């Protein structure tokens, strides 16, 4: 976390502990409250519905909720994580369909 981000938090009266671990500045840490949501999203990474178009093109439609439900039940993820999964899916679709590698 950069010093400017710490200053922004300080403006709201929040103090963020300094990270002296020498972590990678290109890596954004995940808040503990979001960890299960991220793990559930990653656990569902093979459950995307994709349609082939043209010669080698693909359109990402969304996650297969039936398959993701199995992942959720087997992983014992909380119900609130399901809403987070859908938010991440909605954010990922435009990126997946942008055509950028």
Automatic annotation (TrEMBL):
Domain of life, source organism: Bacteria
Protein name, per record: DUF1799 domain-containing protein
InterPro entries, per the entry: Phage_TLS_TfmB
Protein's organism: Rhizobium paknamense
